[in-house]
# Entry
Amino acid sequence: MKHAKKASNPVYREEYLKGYEAGLDPYNSCEGKVLSAAYTDGFEFGRSEYEGLNGFLCLGIPKRIVTKSTLEDFLLAGMLGLSVDADGFTPFQLDVIEVWYRNGIDQYNPEQSEYLRAVLEAVDVELSY
# Structure
């Protein structure tokens, strides 16, 4: 109940979102800085989300960063039966990506894929196979 009151406070929410966004940035650190509790809470949640997708920061920053948007792209590629470029991702990231891609494959509908190809070709978007 206490957390719900904090989240409804616009000042807390704004600081929390700033911290969350900073936590998603692997190059950002809030160590040694005096920050509000809301910012720190948001930072910690953002950092845990980043590490859940990309691996622990102490193991290094990967060449390519996985985000929710990246995962949605892999899900869509699986749904449409498209091949994907997995170069530059770490083994940890590939494990995360594989789950999303497989979920897309489970929803694959060849008719949708052919329909999409027809629509894209009609507007002169060239597909490589």
About this structure: The radius of gyration is 19 Å. The mean pLDDT is 87.
